[in-house]
Design brief:
mainly alpha
């Protein structure tokens, strides 16, 4: 999949949680509309975030880039960047700023229009806590550094070149329906990682973006972003 690092345990432990997440997302999309009556596929999201979360927990000791927390100033910068990206994501919603429609929609509303709070909590926790970790381990820690040098663990994020940032962000963008917002997000998270040398700053910013955006989605009912 990625040259000589494809069978490297260090690489696998950074891309397999993401691959499992994407495959289960695709499965929800394939089953949508063909599932037996009474089967709510939205609960498959528990497996979609739970299985990658379990894999990351098992391999946690191997994530050397997450061993130490960044300085508090870098944490505050990450929060600010996450809020800025969230603001952009809420506003970059014109039709030309989107690529098609989501693979599997997630509308946690009951048959009588009532909000399904258990599903809402599940979705919010998954997007705010699990997704930022698995995506940053894959997109920034692995892919961006692998583009800069196949021995990616030896690559200092602070010395990653523009080509690696742009190419990894391009692929990150194509994986999202909201392509323009995703491009801004990918560049922002890559900039944080490159500036601070700490993957935690990208994870924190990503978590803030997803968490605040999730609250906004719930309050205003913009379920298409979920």
């Amino acid at each position: 999949m990625f040259g000589r690092t494809a069978f490297d345990p260090a690489a696998q432990r950074r891309f397999l949680p993401f691959v499992v997440f994407v495959l289960l997302l695709a499965l929800r999309g394939l089953l949508d509309g063909v599932a037996p009556q009474g089967v709510d596929l939205r609960w498959l999201y528990a497996l979609q975030v739970g299985l990658p979360g379990l894999l990351m927990a098992i391999w946690w000791r191997d994530y050397v880039e997450l061993k130490s927390l960044p300085r508090w100033r870098d944490m505050l910068l990450a929060v600010a960047v996450g809020l800025a990206v969230c603001w952009l994501w809420m506003r970059l919603d014109e039709p030309w700023m989107r690529l098609g429609t989501p693979v599997a929609g997630f509308r946690p509303i009951g048959p009588d229009g009532e909000p399904l709070w258990a599903l809402i909590a599940l979705r919010w926790l998954g997007t705010a806590l699990v997704v930022p970790l698995l995506e940053e381990l894959f997109w920034r820690s692995f892919l961006m550094r692998w583009i800069a040098g196949h021995d990616f663990l030896a690559v200092d994020a602070r010395r990653v070149g523009v080509q690696a940032v742009v190419l990894s962000t391009l692929v990150f963008t194509l994986a999202h329906t909201e392509w323009l917002a995703a491009a801004c997000a990918g560049l922002a998270y890559a900039w944080l990682y490159r500036r601070t040398g700490s993957l935690w700053t990208a994870v924190i910013a990503h978590a803030v973006t997803n968490g605040v955006l999730g609250l906004w989605i719930v309050v205003y009912g913009h379920w298409m972003l979920w």
